[in-house]
Specification:
By secondary structure, the protein is mainly α. It has one domain (about 15-85). It is built from 4 helices and 2 strands, in the order H-E-E-H-H-H. A hairpin with a 2-residue loop joins strand 1 (about 30) and strand 2 (about 35). It starts with 15 loop residues before the first helix and ends with a helix. Bound molecules: zinc ion (ZN). The site of zinc ion has 6 residues, from helix 4. Zinc ion binds near residues 73 and 74.
Length: about 90
Amino acid sequence: MKNNTKEVLVPSHKLWPLFRKKLEDTLFTYTNNKIHNRCNGDLTITIEILKSMESIDIKETVILFKELGGSCDCKISANVARIWNNR
Ligand SMILES: [Zn+2]
């Protein structure tokens, strides 16, 4: 029961809206009406969220995100979501 029941989190996946909301809630914080981007230039936040989603294949999902221009947390929010009609 390892890996073969896991899925890649494409933006048509039912968990994508939940993932995107968690990502953006964690990534962007507001102080005095200014937006702060907590991205460290890597996928730390993305991977943390994916780890909380039991049915997701993290390795394959990260490969897909990178192919779609999501090389760091904020680029997933910007690039991957936009490619898929901003879902
Ligand atoms: Zn970034």
